[in-house]
Design a protein that fits this description.
95 residues, mainly alpha, 4 helices, 68% helix
Length: 95
């Protein structure tokens, strides 16, 4: 999965989040959403859908429509997709 589109999109979104760069966060979410048009194998399409949903959770949290618990769930999914390690937790720095 290292070079899979879902892996790259998850890493890009996490990097933008860690930098607390709002325009980059929105851009990374849009990139993940645009992947719906890519011809992906079924397993990769499912992984991409998880990344897309996590991106939407982040966007909705930034709009005040989701809770911090929802946000942490989305970030956990992204960490897993980007690094393959759900146990690797990091603080939620962006407020």
């Amino acid at each position: 999965m290292q070079n899979a589109a879902s892996h790259r999109r998850a890493r890009t979104l996490l990097e933008a989040w860690r930098a607390a760069d709002v325009p980059k966060i929105h851009s990374a979410i849009a990139q993940a959403q645009s992947a719906a048009d890519l011809p992906l194998a079924s397993e990769e399409a499912e992984r991409m859908e998880l990344v897309q949903e996590a991106g939407l959770l982040i966007r909705e949290w930034m709009q005040g429509k989701r809770t911090a618990i929802d946000l942490e769930a989305g970030l956990t999914v992204l960490r897993h997709m980007a690094h393959g390690n759900v146990a690797a937790r990091e603080p939620v720095p962006f407020r």
